[in-house]
């Protein structure tokens, strides 16, 4: 009897999870342009605060289990056969370009902006304006495009800061903070990330 109850529970739980995933996929694809064979998890989100659905484009055969956010007139372009795993975040107010065959692990942060101004007075003005005023929008912070070239692997909990290029075939080790360009076919690690090995 217990096995029957467990079986029924599992069946309905699987159907609920399938429904959540279908809703997430519909909401995600309503906010961007996606290629064929796109998939995402039930906790994936695409928040497009620009004036065009086409400002976010995703290639073929991608799986995104992350959050993608753009503001102002930002652009995010993700190539084909690329995956971004759970609890990772891509946040753009300028441009983030991710190539083909890229693996981005869990809890990775990729932002082409500082989120808030570095000028101390501007931060005081933000707080005085109320915590939900337009001054809190990231478009008022410093920004610079990010480019991740083809066949890159970014390890869990890595952080990519504004203005960096991650070279083709390279690896960003777990927990690294990338503040400068990463050469092609290299492994970088640490905070700030430095080359620890070349793959070719």
Would you write up a description of this structure?
This protein has helices at residues 2-29, 120-128; strands at 33-34, 39-40, 45-48, 56-58, 63-64, 67-70, 75-78, 83-84, 89-92, 95-98, 103-104, 109-111, 146-148, 153-154, 159-160, 165-166, 171-172, 177-178, 186-189, 194-198. It has a single domain, classed as UDP N-Acetylglucosamine Acyltransferase, domain 1 (3 Solenoid), CATH 2.160.10. By secondary structure, the chain is α/β, with parallel strands linked by helices. The chain contains 2 helices and 20 strands.
Name of the CATH first level: Mainly Beta
Q: How large, in whole angstroms, is the Cα Rg?
A: 19 Å
Element order: H for helix, E for strand: HEEEEEEEEEEEEHEEEEEEEE
Q: Total strand count, please?
A: 20
Can you give keywords for this protein?
200 residues; alpha/beta; UDP N-Acetylglucosamine Acyltransferase, domain 1; eight-stranded mixed β-sheet; six-stranded parallel β-sheet; 2 helices; 18% helix; 29% strand
Briefly summarize what is shown:
The protein is an alpha/beta fold and 200 residues long.
Helix and strand topology:
Elements lengths: L1 H28 L3 E2 L4 E2 L4 E4 L7 E3 L4 E2 L2 E4 L4 E4 L4 E2 L4 E4 L2 E4 L4 E2 L4 E3 L8 H9 L17 E3 L4 E2 L4 E2 L4 E2 L4 E2 L4 E2 L7 E4 L4 E5 L2
Parallel strand pairs: 1-4, 2-5, 3-6, 4-7, 5-8, 6-9, 7-10, 8-11, 9-12, 10-13, 11-14, 12-15, 13-16, 14-17, 15-18, 17-19
Antiparallel strand pairs: 19-20
